[in-house]
């Protein structure tokens, strides 16, 4: 799997496409609109625009280039450790959809809630943030 930055699509394409799946239920191992897990959702959204991501969130964490939180922009992948995992192993991924006054909003598929938006400013996510990676060239 190539870790290079792709030239297309534009970020509004990916984020608008992802928005269509808000409220789709969470399904472990799911990678279709019938149900998504976190990495199945990101893989599905990017694949629609010709960007091939690996299947697992930890593998997606090796694609593209790392960017600082302060440089995040819509279309970037955002990675988190799990609820139980206190180490630095990626166990969750979402797509940055908005950066407003330093606040980051992202869309992801989460257990028991399905595809939804959250803000990184929520302490649950702040504590678990592992990094942000860019796979779309501006």
Automatic annotation (TrEMBL):
Keywords: Hydrolase, Protease, Thiol protease. The keyword Lipid metabolism does not apply. Transmembrane segments: none annotated. InterPro entries: NLP_P60_dom, Papain-like_cys_pep_sf, Peptidase_C40. SUPFAM superfamilies: Cysteine proteinases (SSF54001). Residues 8-136 form the NlpC/P60 domain. Pfam families: NLPC_P60. The keyword rRNA-binding does not apply. Belongs to the peptidase C40 family. PANTHER family: MUREIN DD-ENDOPEPTIDASE MEPH-RELATED. This is NlpC/P60 domain-containing protein. It comes from Nibrella saemangeumensis. The lineage of its organism: Bacteria, Pseudomonadati, Bacteroidota, Cytophagia, Cytophagales.
């Amino acid at each position: 799997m190539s870790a290079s930055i792709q030239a297309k699509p534009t970020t509004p394409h990916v984020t608008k496409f992802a928005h269509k799946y808000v409220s789709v239920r969470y399904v472990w191992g799911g990678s279709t609109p019938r149900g998504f897990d976190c990495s199945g959702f990101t893989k599905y959204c990017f694949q629609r625009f010709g960007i091939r991501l690996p299947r697992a969130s930890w593998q997606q964490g090796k694609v593209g280039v790392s960017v600082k939180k302060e440089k995040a922009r819509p279309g970037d992948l955002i990675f988190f450790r799990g609820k139980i995992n206190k180490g630095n192993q990626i166990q969750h991924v979402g797509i940055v959809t908005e950066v407003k006054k330093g606040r980051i909003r992202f869309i992801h598929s989460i257990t028991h809630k399905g595809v939804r938006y959250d803000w990184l400013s929520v302490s649950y996510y702040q504590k678990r943030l592992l990094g942000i990676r860019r796979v779309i060239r501006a």
